[in-house]
Amino acid sequence: EAGVTQFPSHSVIEKGQTVTLRCDPISGHDNLYWYRRVMGKEIKFLLHFVKESKQDESGMPNNRFLAERTGGTYSTLKVQPAELEDSGVYFCASSLSLNYGYTFGSGTRLTVV
Amino acid sequence: DQQVKQNSPSLSVQEGRISILNCDYTNSMFDYFLWYKKYPAEGPTFLISISSIKDKNEDGRFTVFLNKSAKHLSLHIVPSQPGDSAVYFCAASAGDYKLSFGAGTTVTVRA
Question: Which of A31, A40, A104 sits opposite B43 (nearest CB)?
Fold first, then answer.
């Protein structure tokens, strides 16, 4: 079974630009999570989808971040406009049912210059 | 407000010896705790977990201990192997499947 796929693996953009990160969960996994690790610090929760619905978006930092999950399959996380503090590694994870057995993707390293 | 803290950013241990990683938390609502392992350029992978109704859980070379009164948990790896060199994250949840992570401890196993 294919794992959680994220792309791009790396992205370098200028402050003020827009970036879209994509996550393809494991096929059939209804639960999809986005997390972020900034500057080597703790990994922080951003949001949780159940199928195409946002179950919990309490971790989204501000309205420059927009997450979508079309048809309950892949998800995108758009940052518009990007700021320097948005730099970090963005992880996506998925699980079949509501449990702690997430499978994480390898992450997208975003650098805003 | 960081609710899960790993105060040791790094740990170096000789191959074959015990590695002990520590984690403290502040939220008394946390009822499930996990350890994840992360290699460079990879996502975290689940290692071992423990529910708040237990004080110990063992899986092969890995044992997690939970001290609820002290709001402290630890991960013991015995014996340590070179492949254990990685970043280890402690995580906790209050039952909503949303995880709060610590900042990680980098373990280096020396031959």
Answer: A104
